[in-house]
Amino acid sequence: MKEQNGKLSRDEFLSFVKAVLKKKSLEENKPLYFEYRLSENGEKEKFLNRFDAFAPEGFSEYRNSVIFEFIYSRTLKAEQIKKRIKGVTDTYRKSYDATIVFILNTEFQFEDSNSAVWDLSVINNWIEEYPTEYSHACSLGMERKTVASDKENIQLFEKLYSEGLYLKNNDSYTNAIRTCIKEQNGFAIVLGAGVSKEQGAKTWDELLKDFQKEIEEKHLLDDSKAVFEEVGGSSFTTAQLCKDIWASEKTFAWQIHKSLYDAARDLDMNTELGEIARLAQRCQKDQNFRILSYNYDDFLEQYLAFLDVKCCSIFTTKVRYSNGRDSADFYGMNGQPNQSLRLYHVHGFLPKVTTRDQLDMLHMRSICLTEADYNMLYNQPYSWPIASQLSFFRENTCLFIGCSLSDPNIRRLLEITAYNPPKHYAIFAMTYKSTDALGYTTTKQLTSKDRLQIENHFYRIGINILWVKDYSEIPAWLHDLNQVIV
């Protein structure tokens, strides 16, 4: 175990160190910055890699400011390390009243009243204390490592697989989200189909099945199953074929509208969307707070209206949805910024209407559902929907709710904007449905080992996973989060 850290590549070492420092800062409830410097008057300013890390209010046993420097020393000799540490210490001592902590991946002793060295012995203690972060770091290597099968790590990963560890991680992540909201540091919510399904909307697959059923009942194809299989059978191609053979654009849009609203449930503030609306109400004082939705429906708008929260629903490059009272743009008629909450429908917006004739052409044409729609959207890197998603992922700390994160286009944007350590969070459930060869469906729970691999997978694209036993627990988690936000 002692030499394990020496086997890490430079990227793995840096990832592990950053992740542990971030976790410790959350546990101590003290700020930590990886991309900030101190200006001449001592204020924090964004500056890439001025310090490897900076803790303005102290860290661990140090009560004054702490500057961290990371030294990956696999190719460095002892004299080179000593010279580098002394040079950095002498430089920083002239300008900053702070303790300088050097973190190395080798055994090294150095004594100085203004600096400290955390060497391999400290790192190995961290591996024992933070096995999840260590596993995440190992998973980032270009060569796939099977660290769990290494005999030296059996004891470590037995500890990792303990049921209590995910709860500890959940607490840390929840605290990080809570702090981001309270300090108004650009928190954002990203919504997927899961939140609308709870309200009564059909899933994408259910919608496509309805399309196919309608095609069969109207005899628009002689053998619909054979045709759908022939054109590819994916959800995108199926949607494209349905639109190609449908009677009219309005009929196609009305079928989508029916799938969203025909079985809609009454508003209930104790549901997932109800708690999300309450969270949005609490966050609206933050000028950088906003919501991104991959859904077409206006369920969240209905909940926000119930809470009397003004909302500007944005669904195309130049056209904004207005309810007749609020400005239809970021700016009002007087030129002042629109104070309404901004809700981005990057895949289109189809608000509820009473009859098919009330469907608006702009809303119908905003819907991104078919293969052609997605190709057009994601082959235009400077389009508003792409720019909006990139802006969210770069500038905000996002909480993903109801998102499977399986769309390759969205994953590509996340990978482009990924931070290390990750700054985004997604809520996943441990339970899943399994169907055997006889067609019987049972509910199973992911093992700790499988959850770890899922965490490693999403860690690479900048996302920390918050686990709940079942998706039905999400409203309670959101309720608890709302209770501690004033």
From TrEMBL:
It comes from the Bacteria. InterPro entries: DHS-like_NAD/FAD-binding_dom. Pfam families: SIR2_2 (PF13289). This is Uncharacterized protein. It comes from Faecalibacterium duncaniae (strain DSM 17677 / JCM 31915 / A2-165) (Faecalibacterium prausnitzii).
